[in-house]
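sry for the spam today, last one i promise. struct tokens for design, 186 residues
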């Protein structure tokens, strides 16, 4: 097995982190990998917001918590009631990936960038967690101020985030993958 395949298979969702920051050169390499993800017609319909401020992540988390506590879904409410609730899983930083609203394949293109970053992070000894639920507050009209504070450009919408940092948990067995998802046509 080569190093690339080893890193793809080693990537795991990390949900507990040390407070120590990610080194600048590692962050630069991760962002370069994001920008070199494939995108439909090479449109590159993404914008990366690198949030190094834990205070900003706490603010987003607190607003998400408020929205989640008002959810009709009991499971969502329960998650938000956890006193340690953090949309960014305790990471020291996160990269929010926003997609251009008018680009047909923005969701795929941005997802490609997130996965590139996650694999790059693994290869650099960092943990990461792909996030979709970090944006519940931003999706509401009352959350528009967060988009402005994050400098998300006009015409772009936050789609995914990746928490990144040095992992602080030893992960057990990998979650099993479904069987029967591959068909060969000979
Ligand atoms: C689009 C997307 C959204 C996700 N959102 C969250 C999230 O909001 N919070 C979280 O803890 N994990 C989130 N995950 C991580 C998945 O739960 C995780 O990838 C899955 O359980 C498989 O585990 P693994 O990443 O360790 O292989 C998300 C993953 C994807 C691809």
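last one done:
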């Amino acid at each position: 097995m080569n190093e690339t395949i080893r890193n793809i298979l080693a990537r795991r969702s990390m949900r507990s982190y040390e407070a120590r920051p990610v080194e600048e050169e590692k962050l630069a390499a991760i962002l370069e990998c994001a920008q070199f993800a494939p995108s439909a017609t090479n449109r590159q319909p993404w914008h990366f917001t690198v949030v190094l401020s834990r205070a900003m992540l706490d603010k987003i988390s607190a607003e998400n918590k408020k929205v989640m506590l008002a959810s009709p879904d009991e499971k969502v409410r329960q998650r938000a009631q956890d006193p340690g609730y953090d949309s960014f899983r305790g990471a020291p930083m996160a990269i929010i990936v926003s997609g251009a609203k008018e680009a047909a394949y923005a969701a795929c293109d941005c997802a490609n960038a997130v996965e590139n970053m996650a694999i790059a992070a693994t290869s650099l000894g960092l943990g990461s967690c792909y996030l979709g639920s970090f944006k519940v507050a931003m999706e509401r009209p009352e959350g528009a101020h967060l988009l402005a504070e994050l400098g998300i450009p006009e015409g772009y919408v936050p789609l995914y985030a990746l928490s990144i940092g040095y992992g602080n948990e030893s992960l057990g067995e990998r979650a099993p993958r479904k069987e029967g998802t591959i068909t060969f046509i000979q």
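Residues 12-13, 15, 89, 129-133, 160, 175 surround flavin mononucleotide (CB under 6 Å). ok im logging off now
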